[in-house]
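Q: Hi! Curious about what DNA-3-methyladenine glycosylase looks like structurally. Here's the sequence.
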Amino acid sequence: MAGRKRKMLPVTDAEATIVKHKHQTDLSLNVSPAKLKNNPCETLENAQNCEAELSHYFTNNNLHQRLEEDFFKQSCISLAKAFLGKVLVRRCADGTELRGRIVETEAYLGGEDKASHSAGGKRTERNTAMFMKPGTIYVYLIYGIYLCMNVSSKGDGAAVLLRSLEPLQGQPAMRQLRAARRREGARLLKDKELCNGPSKLCQALNIPRCFDRRNLAADPEVWLENDPNINPAEPNDIVSAPRIGIESHGEWAKKPWRFYLRGHPCVSVVNKEAERQSVSGNVTSNLVPSEVQSHTGQHNVKKA
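A: Let's find out. The predicted structure is below.
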């Protein structure tokens, strides 16, 4: 796209940006959850076969810049920060494309990280994706009903949890998909509430469990893009805070390995103490999860 690159919008203008994108998409999208859920689950084998038949959307001539395998080949913490500002795209069976900008992530390093599913190098049928090549999707079930989406990085058993998105395209469809999982008569969700949590973004983008072990760099139904009009987040824009829902893991619960864009309205949980420390440049390695404020009022998921 021609013109000067815009600066990342993690501060006060982000709310206005959400409204702007909503108005751009409401007129063109009016689909039902039933249509979007039509055959969402291809087998892993079918998905891999589809990689050789990618449409013109994935060519270098397209305005959007799909992230390739080299992007994912970085350490877990580095990748968790690099994800901020990138765009997650979900292409549904009817061709509808849902887009959201990543504004919050968590890093799970495996090995000594007791809060990780792969702590101690333990490899199971469930967490196999964490040991696969960087860029592999890891989808797992929590509480028996909710899904969370992670992406593997460099490092044995390391992966990044995608916590929150800023909806960019397809908000009407996202709202319908979220409504299908809520009680009848519940109030209409605001745009900033559509994807402000790990399970919420999976519902809003119709991410099924069978996406587990897919290659995010080559899959025809879900991928990441670099927005050519947005500059990468600067260090001062990124807040480092303790991860959410892992209080039972002792010292590992205090590691500031959750990263989010400062002041962004779509962040699921704000940590004021972490924000003060990151402004002063004095981020501790064991930050106590105090003064935490949730935008959602909903309990956050745990890493079991």
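A: A fun detail: Residues 41 and 208 are 7 Å apart (CA to CA).
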